[in-house]
Amino acid sequence: MRHIDEDNITQAVIARHAQASDARLRDVMTSLVQHLHAFAREVRLTEAEWRAGLHFLAEAGRHGDARRQELALLSDTLGLSMLVSALNHRVPKGCTEATVPGPLHAGAGDDGHDHAAPLPADDDRHAAAVAGEPCFVRGQVRALDGAPVAGAEVRVWPAAAAGGHDGPRGAAVSGPDGRFQCRGMLAGTHAIPHDGPVGRLLQQLGRHPWRPAHLHVAVDAPGYRRLLTQVFRGGDRWLDSDAVFGVRGSLVADWARHEPGPTPDGGTSAVPFHTLDFDFVLDRAPAARPPSD
Amino acid sequence: MRHIDEDNITQAVIARHAQASDARLRDVMTSLVQHLHAFAREVRLTEAEWRAGLHFLAEAGRHGDARRQELALLSDTLGLSMLVSALNHRVPKGCTEATVPGPLHAGAGDDGHDHAAPLPADDDRHAAAVAGEPCFVRGQVRALDGAPVAGAEVRVWPAAAAGGHDGPRGAAVSGPDGRFQCRGMLAGTHAIPHDGPVGRLLQQLGRHPWRPAHLHVAVDAPGYRRLLTQVFRGGDRWLDSDAVFGVRGSLVADWARHEPGPTPDGGTSAVPFHTLDFDFVLDRAPAARPPSD
User: Fold this and answer.
1) How many angstroms separate the CA of residue B92 from the nearest CA in chain A?
2) Mapped to the 3 state alphabet, what secondary structure does chain A carry?
3) List of chain A residues whose C-beta atoms are within 8 Å of the C-beta of residue B4
4) Quick one: which of B291, B280, B173 has its CA closest to B229?
5) Nearest neighbour of B80 by CB, restricted to A18, A36, A60
6) Residue A110: pLDDT above 50?
7) pLDDT tens digit string along B110-158?
8) Number of neighbours of residue B9 by Cβ within 10 angstroms
9) pLDDT digits over A135-183, tens only?
10) Burial, B242: exposed, middle or buried (Cβ in 10 Å; 0-12, 13-18, 19+)?
């Protein structure tokens, strides 16, 4: 095809990939090229806009470091991260829903989060180091049919502060009745990092960088699909406008605040503390699926 | 909209941009988000692919330097650069067509090329420094109605070698009959830079990095739209598979090769030289349009 013009170029590019050895890569690139070209045609992208877009992406690519990937932030704020999460974590009605893994994807493990650090051997010691107010999370881990799931590992951690590290983690293992209780830290409202190119874009779009207060939760149990989600605090002012579009109605819950005194774990808190009751319903892992999925 | 799911997220993101102060930015982002999400849905993008895509873009963003923008190369090889050029340089039938500005966009002026360097005052001196064989380009600059265009500035330069700088330029101004002749350098076949992420992608897609031999041409004349194009050498083996999809049938021409001896400019060449006869038909600039368009 020697004569390339604005009408035939998309097919010309796609045809060039016919010899790709990886069929999946070919299919992904075919769809990508079609949508990229359709976008340029639809808005009749100017050359100045095209250059501005390339410069924006290059700046974002250079902006990242070990703790921050600006392009992941871009994906988050354009709803792509949440969409990809939703497409890959469809669960039967009644199971606890997943949500966007969060705005910081550095050192991503297979769920987009950094789990390289070992779990604390002594949760209380870590919880004691928490600067905020403690939060006791308790509930039951169940299968869709209502059967309790024993031996499920439940981990909770607060949202990362802007540009900072994930907070300390609390962890517990569910008992024979599926019930668990672990001590975490109150999740506060926070802004995603917005001192870079993505922050500038949000401002140009008239958007704020805030996320509603939430607690990250991971639940792992043999025979079930890993659940990676967030529980949002009811009444938060940003529930309707989460900067990364992660709020699902089923994941909003009430935290109860308690005055200093005896805590559910039999101890005593000298500062106010919180309790959150939340049950997690897991989806069975397909037999053919590797456990890491 | 509190409950985000895979069906409503696209509208949720678009709705968030309703307050953007710049209507054009809002429209561009609306289309971008729709196509980005449609792509992810169409291929049901996996989380591993999503992360690989982000890493690829970040690596490409970091790969550029003052002479090379890897993301511009990506745009070139996916046909986006050529499409944007075609969308923005539609000309009436009979006018000389534009093509992709080329694979190196560093220091881009308003046409995507570095014109910061002043034109050589003495073309012959520059042409003499050319390592390849000289090429005499001659022809006529005309308007669409056939009227000769006098005083048009014609500049020619060879394709940049991989990763290198654009070659030396030849320049001429058309006479009262619209005719011009300038001395350039023979354009050779060359590969686009392919030692980075884009080169890896091309390899995975079963694609080569070659461009057919071509000569860059810019023609500027008061009252006419700037023409920025390339003339391709007939018979080149890569004409049908230009790595950046820039070949238009109307831009393919024959170079005639001559043995050492007298040259069209009245001089003598001690090495073989070439002649290329090519006329350029300019599109009138809309009266309302600023001259820089």
Assistant:
1) 14
2) CCCCCCCCHHHHHHHHCCCCCCHHHHHHHHHHHHHHHHHHHHHCCCHHHHHHHHHHHHHHHHHCECCECHHHHHHHHCCHHHHHHHHHCCCCECECCCCCCCCCCCCCCCCCCCCCCCCCCCHHHHHHCCCCCEEEEEEEEEECCCCECCCCEEEEEECCCCCCCCCCCEEEECCCCCEEEEEEECCCCEECCCCCHHHHHHHHCCCCCEECCEEEEEEECCCECCEEEEEEECCCCCCCCCCCCCCCHHHEECEEEECCEECCCCCEECCCEEEEECCEEECECCCCCCCCC
3) 79, 82, 86, 242, 245-248
4) B280
5) A36
6) no
7) 333 333 233 233 333 333 333 468 889 999 999 999 999 999 999 998 8
8) 22
9) 899 999 999 999 999 999 999 988 764 444 556 778 999 999 999 999 9
10) buried
Cα gap A258→A271, rounded to integer Å: 9
Percent of the residues in chain A that have a pLDDT greater than 90, as a whole number = 64
Give the nearest chain B residue to A44 (CA atoms): B87
Whether B51 and A22 lie within 8 Å, measured CB to CB: no
Pairing type for strands B273-277 and B134-143 reads: parallel
CA-to-CA dists, residue B273 to A248, B139, B182, angstroms: 71, 17, 13
In terms of Cβ atoms closer than 10 Å to its own Cβ (0-12, 13-18, 19+), residue B197 is buried
Measured between beta carbons, which residues in chain A are less than 8 angstroms from residue B79? Answer: 4, 9-10, 12-13, 33, 37
Q: What's the token pair of residue B16?
A: 């968030």
Give the chain B residue whose CA is nearest to the CA of A236.
Answer: B2
pTM for the complete prediction?
A: 0.85
Question: CB pairs below 8 Å between A and B: how many?
Answer: 244
How far is the C-alpha of B176 from the C-alpha of B123, rounded, in Å? 21
CATH C-level class of A75-282: mainly beta
CB B29 within 8 A of CB A205: yes
The whole-number average pLDDT for the span A213-233 is: 93
CB < 8 Å to A75, chain B? 50, 54
Task: Judge: B78–A28 Cβ closer than 8 Å, yes or no.
Answer: no
Q: Are B293 and B284 in contact (CB under 8 A)?
A: no
